[in-house]
Amino acid sequence: MKIGSISENLNSEKRISITPEVANKYINLGLEVCLNSNYGSHLGFDDRKYKELKVEILNDSKDVIKKSDLIVQLDLLDDDKNNLIKENQTLVGVFNPYGNKEKIDDLLKRKINIFSLELLPRITRAQSMDILSSQANLAGYKAVIDSFAKFEKAIPMMMTAAGTITAAKVLVVGAGVAGLQAIATAKRMGAIVFATDVRMSSKEQVESLGGKFLTVEGSENLETESGYAKEASEDFKKKQEELISETLKKIDIVICTALIPGKKAPLIIKNYMIKNMQVGSIIYDLAAAQGGNTASTEIDKTVDKNGVKILGERNILNKLPVSASNLYAKNLFNFISNLYDKDNKRLKINLKDEIINKTLLK
Questions:
Q1: Where are the domains of the chain?
Q2: Is-contact 169 192, C-beta < 8 A?
Q3: Is 278 among the residues known to form the active site?
Q4: Is 78 a known active-site residue?
Q5: SS3 6
Q6: Residue 291: left if φ>0, alpha if ψ -120 to 50, beta else—which one?
Q7: Is 133 a known active-site residue?
């Protein structure tokens, strides 16, 4: 059985799905690996490294698709390559079934198996496959690093003979995986950190990292059974808005991470709030690709709003592609190891397995 992957569009996605380390794992599992030429060269993984592991390197990416039983990617393929996928071939990746419904429906009609790993259930057995957590960890870290680099003041408190520099104040909106990593990173660098989230279960986690959790008066726990945030009531939104509005007046840096799976990102920071922030403050909106948590976020642009800089990258992980690829490739391998029947050398789509059932698009 052959597993393949082709280069993503490097203008929008620098991560790869099969690193040399993981290619070796697939081969040891009993799979053949097939890639197009220069697949990982932009990350320092040249073809020679793959060939030493007995990976088949083909000049044309279309040939990789034709020869592979199982194709692993980050995004859906372009239309011309999608048309090459045959019945009973299998696609595994992060395919955004809510946003790519038409393309996915077309593939399903052609009896192609599609597994989208952002749908993984939040159970212990799936933790090693959890692509959302591994990638969000890096995103939260990098958002803080980039924000601090843009901020034109020192971050930690410094006591000098010439006077004291006060520590920067950071607000993290959304205390999921990305938010918690942002809190931890900001604290390590000496900032005073506040955080808010609709899930009350986040309070203990925030405080364990040294952050101060901002609680909306009379709030309820807005958490789904899967552990994600769900839509808040209008009353909650109003109270949260008042709390955040007052807090922002004393905040230097805001890291926005609030997302609702399958929906537009919640609008949390409105323009009148930004107007009341201190000149020179920074907002990093990790939710930019899904509409943004601020009213002024623009994808892949730095917006200056009354002296407040708002950063909205489409894909912050392009700034950490080697680390992100290493984690993503291992997540994929762990998922495929669960899907692959080593004895019979084929994929076993067992719908009684919650991991397989929840990620298989139907």
A1: 2-119+321-359, 137-318
A2: yes
A3: no
A4: no
A5: coil
A6: left
A7: yes
pLDDT in tens, the chain (362 residues): 999 999 999 889 999 999 999 999 999 999 999 999 999 999 999 999 999 999 999 999 999 999 999 999 999 999 899 999 999 999 999 998 888 999 999 999 999 999 999 999 989 999 999 999 999 999 999 999 999 999 999 999 999 999 999 999 999 999 999 999 999 999 999 999 999 998 888 999 999 999 999 987 655 555 555 555 556 677 877 888 899 999 999 999 999 999 887 688 999 999 999 999 999 999 999 999 989 999 999 999 999 999 999 999 999 999 999 999 999 999 999 999 999 999 888 999 999 999 999 999 99
What CA–CA distance (Å, rounded) separates 231 from 254?
21
Catalytic-role residue among 46, 122, 146, 337: 122
Establish whether 240 is a catalytic residue. no
- For 2-119+321-359, CATH gives 3.40.50.720
pLDDT of residue 109: 95
Cα 56 off chain centre by: 30
Q: How far apart are CA 337 and CA 234, in angstroms?
A: 44
Strands 90-93 and 70-72: parallel
What's the CA gap between 296 and 317, in Å, rounded?
22
- Selecting among 41, 228, 245, 337, the annotated active-site residue is 228
Give which of 243, 245, 250, 246 is closest to 168, Cα–Cα. 250
Report the alpha-carbon distance of residue 219 to residue 200 in Å, rounded: 8
**Beta partners for residue 180, in sequence order:** none
Structure tokens at 13: 């996605």
Active-site pick, 133, 202, 205, 290: 133
User: Is 137-318 the same fold as 2-119+321-359?
Assistant: yes
Q: Is 130 a catalytic residue?
A: yes
Strands (E), the chain: 2-5, 32-36, 56-58, 70-72, 90-93, 113-116, 158-160, 163-165, 169-173, 192-196, 212-213, 253-256, 282-285, 301-305, 308-312, 340-341, 346-347
CATH architecture of 137-318: 3-Layer(aba) Sandwich (3.40)
